[in-house]
Amino acid sequence: MTDATELTRLTRELLAAHPPADTGRLDFLRARFDAGLAWVHYPEGLGGLGAPRTLQAVVDAELEAAGAPDNDPRRIGIGLGMAAPTILGFGTEEQKRKFLRPLWVGEEVWCQLFSEPGAGSDLAALGTRAVRSGDEWIVNGQKVWTSSAHLARWAILIARTDPDVPKHRGITYFLCDMTDPGVEVRPLRQITGEAEFNEVFLTDVRIPDAHRLGEVGDGWRVAQTTLNNERVAIGGMRIPREGGMIGPVAKVWRERPELRTHDLHQRLVKLWVEAEVARLTGERTRQQLVAGQPGPEGSGLKLSFARLNQEISGLEVELRGEEGLLYEDWTMRRPELVDFVGRDAGYRYLRSKGNSIEGGTSEVLLNIVAERVLGLPSEPRTDKDVAWKDLAR
Amino acid sequence: MSTPSTASTEPDLLYSEDEEALRAAVRDLLTDHCDPAGVITRMETDAPHDLSLWKSLAEGMGLAGLLVPEEQGGQGASHREVAVVLEELGRAVAPVPYLTSAVVATEALLACTGDAAGELLTALASGRTVGALTVALNVAPGGAYKVVLHEGGVLHGELTGIADATAADVLLVPADDGGLYAVSIDANAVTITPQVSLDLTRPVATIAFDGASARLLGDAEPAVRRALRAGAGLLASEQLGLADWALTETVRYLKDRKQFNRPVGGFQAVKHRLAQLWLEVVGLRAAARSAADALAAGSADSDVAVAVAQSYAAPVAVRAAEEALQLHGGIGMTWEHPTHLCLKRAKADSIAYGTSGGHRATLAELVGLRAP
Predict the structure, then answer these.
(1) If we measure between CA atoms, which residue out of A242, A149, A190 comes closest to residue A355?
(2) Would the pLDDT of A43 be above 90?
(3) What is the pTM of this model?
(4) Residue A38, Cβ neighbours under 10 Å: how many?
(5) Which of A176, A218, B292, B315 has a 20 to 30 Å separation from A166 between CA atoms?
(6) What is the pLDDT of residue A236?
(7) B283 with A363: Cβ contact below 8 A
(8) d(CA A77, CA A73)
(9) Chain A residues touching B361 at Cβ < 8 A
């Protein structure tokens, strides 16, 4: 069993063999991966040591203290948080060896080709077709809301391989090469002025069968692993008081007494309380996870944060008065990172509108809470036994 | 300009195994001895408090002395355990003077140092004596309260809105000279008159002192402040119990109740309302645990934690009860159905120890978000 002492020893050994000051960034990261210190809970040979996930903090703290470079996790969040656990869970040995190392060190950025113009909340209705041709699959269709597509080397892709069975059953999961000539990435400009996301057009894209993940027709089940990991990534962070979107507006309130009105004060303090309660709820959820007693509380966090981000940023625009009439910059840009808080109040107001849509709309999440947590009856499912090709569209 | 106070370490927001065992024991007792039909019948009689239930809780289980150190005859436990008891008492809308005697009066005595206070503390911890602090139930921590005149060793004056006074054996009375006095209800010159109360399970009363003899316990101001802060902070756990009961009971009912050939709980308009309410109850649980843990630890963040919990709790508990009534339909409007017990307690609690708005105003000062 690999314990904390052993991990500390291995980390120091790595640092001694590859002093960060004299080692190239990628070389150091590759050495770290090969030492099993990338994600310690992964199996040996795949960047881990089969150690408990909680012990990663021991390695990270040791490396940080030594000034070692990290793999810039925010830039490769989809790879780390969604592609990797799915490849680990369903990939062949060859796929795991081929993809996980360059994914983790950040040489290869990943994106996610799931949503389509005609399949949003009802993702399983997706229409991108993959047709078998010898050892290959020929893929045609359109994907949307793809962040990092313009940077990505690979994509996780779900496509329809059998239109004659009900929608959940005819889907297959693929690993798609984004340099294939049939892949066209176009920026999708948002209401903030920038293009954080892309539309991806797939025209006769050829994917070798060796890049299929899981069985043919089993793609929906494979995709659940991806989506469950997306939700895990959202919870679990420790936030200080005023650490979220309430922070900037509280700062303006303290620094700019001339902007204060009684109405704004009432609303501000009410939202401050709700933000603090949401923070405590997140903290309680985190403590439950650490104690090994995960509860259903986490499923509500995104709902709460979406509403609060929207209301707080809306209040901030109003509080700023004449400045609230302005906007920092409408220039069309393609940012590398998603940033909810960093820019001005107007940006925060507009960007947070997406918080109740992305990663599950608030309406769908309320259904999930009602059905899975409270045990209320499911919505009527008229599509359950209908072949995908016969669905209304 | 003050900056926001930051909690140095995060509070423990979970329930320990011992706390869960305590909850189970209290719930068992209440399931057997505090059914809604009994509460509804009792609350219209001349003896609305269930003193036999109180005896089981206080003497049988030793719960009246949770906040009192062992050397003074208590259990030497903390606000965390008391909070769990209050959650359960809230769920059952139990007509016992637990919050008023075992929390508020007890905390007032814990702030006093003399022998008289010590003796009384031990008596309250045993549960055989019930105490009531004679500050109106609506007064918030730090708020102004009415005092009586202390002249020639006796008390004169009239007070109103005193919760659970009719169940009390001894009154803790702030007087105009700054002292907190103990007055036995057996004294000839004390008259307690029940007021017709919105919440009959925690009724309020007027108290007239007409030359009542009194023993000095200590300084009133710090005792009252400490008592009301603990009362407010732990009331949030009672409110959590109320809200949790309302949600659970409504969900249970709506899975069963059918209209239009479907369970009513399957309609999306209803599901979303209940899911939304669940989110709020989950938030209230975190806020109430935070307040209880801060009080237990004597944390420098206690004032903020209590103000946050009390700012949040009342609207959630009241809405939960109101949603329960609406979603039960006509049956929820009847006297025989327990929803009105929950509604009346939740509404009275929204005033008890300060309103949500009052606590928000306090909080704004504490975290440096000054009003214009």
Answers:
(1) A190
(2) yes
(3) 0.93
(4) 25
(5) A176
(6) 53
(7) no
(8) 6
(9) 269
